Amino acid sequence: MIPGLVVLAPMAGITDIVFRRLCRRFGAAIVYSEFLSTDGLVYNTMNQEHKLILADDEHPVAYQLFGARTETFATAARQLATFKPDMIDLNFGCPVKKVVGKNGGAAILKDLELMARIVHEACSAVSLPVTVKMRAGWDHENLVYHDAAHAAVAEGAQAVTLHARTRVDGYETAATWSYITDLKRELKVPVIGNGDVNSPEDAKAMLDQTGCDAVMIGRGALGRPWIFAQINRYLESGELLPEPSIPDRICVAWQHLNDKLADTGHDPGVVRLMRKQLAAYVKGWDGSHALKARLMSAGDPGEIREAFRDYLASHPDLPRIDGDEWIREYVALDFGWLQNPTRLN
Ligand SMILES: Cc1cc2nc3c(=O)[nH]c(=O)nc-3n(C[C@H](O)[C@H](O)[C@H](O)COP(=O)(O)O)c2cc1C
């Protein structure tokens, strides 16, 4: 049922159409939208209809919903279904105060009857597969993932993603992969494991240790969308592909920004929104401190371009990027190892 072994996690502010398409091209088997508020959809307070149109080349793609009021899930799921995603995922893991304060996200793990009703509503409303993504519980005294997953599947959920942390763990405590092992042993539907997969070796270790059907990558894909190609290759042949060269990484970052500009009618304001994502591309580069500072303060695409150019100029040992190479399509980039991006279609 899952068309590959590695999928892109839903990430608010990150997994927009542009990043989803980028990750699909690099081999993510499924990509997830950021979470969408059921209230926002039902009351149209987010004015987001036009933002929900999906691109042909990002499928399989999941739309993710969060909320707390059962009655909004059916309407919101039906609305999303009109945009023809491949599935609808329900969020039972968000730890953010603004969300749990309104009893959404991970707070639903405190009330499994509510969770079951929500899954039931969503499954009854649409003919698309409905899946769930959950944390292991609110805290370690209340590990409810067994009961929560069984309840979700009993109500019709067709796959369960387990982010192997509790709400109180936030993002920093190490994920406990044995929770995923437990769930995989018990469930008949596919289990997707999530938490701390940041390399091909991590992905293989999670698959081997837990038996999960696929791994989900969140932060490991930030500034490194090619990680999907690296993981797929490692799982297929054991080959560890190198990181792309710095000029190639700059080309991907530049293309990412330009796709975002194109998607937003060339609104220069998106540069501000993309600062963190662009800075993620340069993490760990030799002497990238000043470059990062410039990316984080850039106000238009020209400043980004100049920052990258200056970095390259001050590192003469790196190959140069000139002229229209800046606008070459990342699908055409020859990293020497990029998989055929349509392989998983
Ligand atoms: C910036 C950011 C935004 C996130 N937004 C969402 C979200 O909208 N929905 C969701 O289910 N999880 C969200 N998550 C959690 C990730 O999907 C994932 O479960 C978590 O980062 C653990 O995986 P990782 O260790 O691979 O990063 C977010 C995480 C980050 C870092």
Précis, in short:
This protein is 40% helix and 13% strand. It is an alpha/beta fold. It has an eight-stranded parallel sheet.
Describe the structure.
- With 345 residues, the chain is of the alpha/beta class.
- It has 2 domains: 6-237, Aldolase class I (TIM Barrel), CATH 3.20.20; 246-332, no CATH class.
- Helices cover 40% and strands 13% of the residues.
- It contains 13 helices and 8 strands.
- It has helices at 17-25, 38-42, 70-81, 97-100, 112-125, 145-154, 178-186, 200-210, 227-237, 246-263, 270-281, 289-297, 301-313; strands at residues 6-8, 31-37, 61-66, 87-92, 130-137, 160-166, 191-194, 214-217.
- The chain has an 8-stranded parallel β-sheet.
- The longest helix has 18 residues, at 246-263.
- The chain starts with 5 loop residues before the first strand and ends in a 32-residue tail after the last helix.
- The structure holds flavin mononucleotide.
- The site of flavin mononucleotide has 22 residues, from strand 2.
Specify the CATH homologous superfamily of the largest domain.
Answer: Aldolase class I
Q: C-alpha Rg, in Å?
A: 20 Å
What is the distance, rounded to the nearest whole angstrom, between the alpha carbons of the first and last residues? 13 Å
What molecules are bound to this protein? Answer: flavin mononucleotide
Overall CATH class of the largest domain: Alpha Beta
| Quantity of strands, as a count | 8
The low-confidence runs, each spanning 5 or more residues with pLDDT under 50, are 329-334, 336-345
Shape: globular
The strand order across the widest sheet is 1-8-7-6-5-4-3-2
* Secondary-structure element order, N to C: EHEHEHEHHEHEHEHEHHHHH
Q: What's the story with the biggest beta sheet?
A: 8 strands, parallel
Q: Count helical runs.
A: 13
Can you give the mean pLDDT? Answer: 91
Strand content: 5-15%
As for the CATH topology of the largest domain, it is: TIM Barrel
Return the CATH architecture of the largest domain.
Answer: Alpha-Beta Barrel
Count of discrete structural domains: 2
